[in-house]
Amino acid sequence: MIRARNLISKLGLLCGPLAKIGVVLLVTLLLASALPVKAQSKRVEELLNELIFTPTTPRPSNWTITVLPQVQWDKQVKTLNLRTATAFTSMNETKNATFLNPDYVFNSTEHQLLHTLAHEAGHLICRCTDERLANDIAEALEGRQ
Ligand SMILES: [Zn+2]
Fold this sequence. Notes:
By secondary structure, the chain is mainly α.
């Protein structure tokens, strides 16, 4: 009887610290999943400055670029039934919004990511969904023409 009671009280003592460890782990996981996105956004911002915008291919106005958290990216791609592993852009009269796959941003080379940004800018500049035209504009923005 004494042994059993001891065991129960020991479990009670353990539960407190375990719960705290659980909370700490959860917070750590949340931070770990949020921090890379922020770092990736900075990388995107730096790359954007490398694109060569001109009067004929100007930087799109009101252009926001967001590196989505992975869960949100997966959900959006599924919901909108998109066939992309890199980025997608939505445009209307007042808003130009590009969304990036965090996994791609993290694992792509500078060259690949720069091209993706240039390509999405290409869509916004031509205000079209034409992939070839977007690529042509991207080449110019990347200084490959
Ligand atoms: Zn495209």
